[in-house]
């Protein structure tokens, strides 16, 4: 139920001019939000970009249709019907629900699942012609994806009058009102669930479909939570509607009705009040101590990460590409420094050893000097001194509260929390250094920061493919969306 038809009985007709004005105000706020996002310069891979285009285009099309009605006869039956059935109130309700959320990701996003005799599982493509009779791919539309993907919001502007009309039309009755009470369970007077109501009432059926899609989808090893927002429905006044809401909740969904949205059910916060809340925090859930992979250790000392580097004929194409990326987005100030914050930083002995080998082999003078500071080779230097000296080796602003040095730890997996059986399968697929980094972080409950996308994806796929229970999760890994190599010494250069 993406948009609701005209209500029964119909609401008072709002003039076309007023609806056009409201649509323009809505489009204005969306444009303001897009400008806010652009000003944050956040990468799509960091969940900073919000999928707005389809939602905005729908509102734009509605606004154009309404504008045409401003010159039509306002008393004609066609005009009245068109104004009453406008989708604008639905779009306004969706935007209001979005502004009351956090970590906004997308609007109007479809999620797919596969129905088979063995159950449902997630799929990443639309229905294909090769489906068999035993397997059917289905999809459901989610109005708003929030909380970094972990919440799906479905909005309906259906009124109580229309809902009761639909329920009566479907022949659904409140069994708890029966005089003899023969259908009541346990004789406690509670209204039982309406068996099969998902096939009869669209809201309940929709809740069941969303539940199936959510069970077939995982975001960071977790299933999304479904939330219904029903701004024109109240609780505690109509037993039939209360039972309907109970049936929606029985699917696992949360339900917010108009009476619970605000004191009067209509207040919507101004964008400027909530804009920051709508940004996805890519560092939410980070552990207080971070486990730093070798790829990030190298990025932290690379000349490419600390200022403009002139192109040279000897540079590998990967180095050239990284120079171009650094011009577009500064790795340290835009990504790594915010990710690390003031948290304690550690790395395994294996990651440290490999990083040192590479620096000693090809590192420039400045890359070596940064390594000495990063790892705290001189224990007499306090953090403030290490940061000050590091600042002298960078063209960028290095945070004064950066928690140097990075402490080297033993990758004793047995000393951490017991890992699921899947960890053994993963360990067999990883190199020694990657075992030490990622399994240590997993066993220690630490967030691992890495730019090794291949290994991170391998681990995720193995966890999903071999999980023994629905609650089993893998390691907490934050993937830096781009890497930086060492510039490297020229051939035959000794320093």
UniProtKB/TrEMBL annotation:
It comes from Glutinoglossum americanum. Residues 176-188 have a biased composition (Acidic residues). Pfam families: DUF1308. Transmembrane segments: none annotated. Residues 290-375 form the DUF1308 domain. InterPro entries: DUF1308. This is DUF1308 domain-containing protein. Residues 175-198 are annotated as: Disordered.
